[in-house]
Design brief:
single chain, 7 helices, alpha/beta, Rossmann fold, 5-stranded parallel beta sheet, 137 residues
């Protein structure tokens, strides 16, 4: 089984000053040696941090970190099938009175689509997705 990495784990490592390789090593030490990948939604979340940087040096460091990360792990796109699955899972949850944040919903169903687990620091949101294996970091 592979892993879709939630951006929470990546951001936590980047904020501690770790390299992308160190962050990935740390995740593998906890979650196992499975293939790690990202949802394209996480790319948006991660890149957003570059554009929010308060200084050019911070933006440059974040850009280097992200470039290294994107070289190391594949990024899975949002496909028609993933979009339909997100609509179904989100709609069924909402009908029961459960609101799953959109980004986490799409990341989670991306993992479901590929029969992967999600590795995250934010277990609560992902546990709302039926059938999803969630690995807490």
């Amino acid at each position: 089984m592979g892993l879709i990495l939630d951006s929470s784990a990546i951001i936590a490592g980047e904020r501690k000053g770790q390299s992308a390789a160190d962050v990935l090593s740390g995740i593998r030490a906890v979650a196992g040696p499975e293939l790690a990948a990202l949802s394209v939604i996480s790319v948006i979340e991660l890149e957003h941090g570059i554009w929010r940087a308060k200084t050019a040096a911070q933006a440059s460091a974040r850009q280097k970190f992200m470039d290294d990360l994107f070289q190391a792990v594949p990024v899975y796109p949002l496909t028609f099938d993933i979009a339909r699955l997100a609509a179904r899972v989100g709609g069924e949850a909402q009908r029961k009175g459960v609101a799953i944040p959109f980004q986490d919903l799409v990341i989670g169903v991306t993992a479901l689509q590929f029969n992967y687990a999600v590795a995250t620091l934010n277990v609560r949101h992902f546990q709302m997705i039926p059938g999803l294996v969630v690995k807490s970091l």
